[in-house]
Specification:
Strand content: 5-15%
Strand order of the largest sheet: 1-3-2
Distance between the termini: 44 Å
Shape: globular
Oligomer: single chain
Radius of gyration: 21 Å
Order of helices and strands: HHEHHEEHH
Structural class: mainly alpha
Number of helices: 6
Length: about 170
């Protein structure tokens, strides 16, 4: 007989129900996206459109994002194929939220740049995001939020390490 406790054992050695962190993270994320979708619908912005604008905005201020992102890089980040990304960029461009510009290093490549109208939508998205966060985080202390952020960031780092560093 061994003194080892099973992996799912509590401090007293009794079996504990398995914690479903993956389900909870996914469900909270899905529910937040649904709320965000409802807020964006009056602006005529679809989930895939606001997701692309958000990803583009994350590159602003970085060396590679100073003048937009390559369309192929954007497709990789949002995990979308080349053809669907082209259609999505077409719609964002027709709405005036982005522009395609030739890449300085490769004239065949296109950089996607956020327009002034796109930045205005991003400002509205940030306002909605702050409002949703107040609702979602209601009743949590600043310390609980800090701990949750730390734990989630560590989980993200662990996943990056397990899959070779992709995002």
């Amino acid at each position: 007989m061994t003194d080892e406790k099973p992996e799912n054992a509590g401090a007293d050695g009794a079996a504990q129900p398995e914690f479903r962190i993956g389900f909870l993270v996914h469900d909270v994320s899905r529910m937040r996206r649904t709320l965000f979708d409802q807020e964006m619908r009056p602006l005529g912005i679809t989930r895939s459109q606001w997701w692309v604008l958000a990803q583009l905005s994350r590159s602003i201020g970085t060396e590679s994002g100073a003048d937009g992102m390559l369309q192929t890089e954007l497709a990789r980040i949002v995990d979308m194929g080349k053809a669907p990304m082209t259609g999505l960029i077409d719609r964002l461009e027709a709405s005036g939220f982005v522009q395609r510009q030739p890449d300085a290093r490769d004239r065949r490549a296109k950089r996607i740049v956020i327009t002034d109208s796109g930045h205005a939508v991003l400002d509205q998205m940030a306002t909605v995001g702050r409002r949703l966060n107040r609702t979602i985080l209601a009743g949590l202390s600043a310390e609980e939020v800090r701990i949750a952020e730390t734990v989630l960031a560590r989980m993200k780092d662990n996943i990056r390490g397990a899959d070779g560093g992709s995002d």
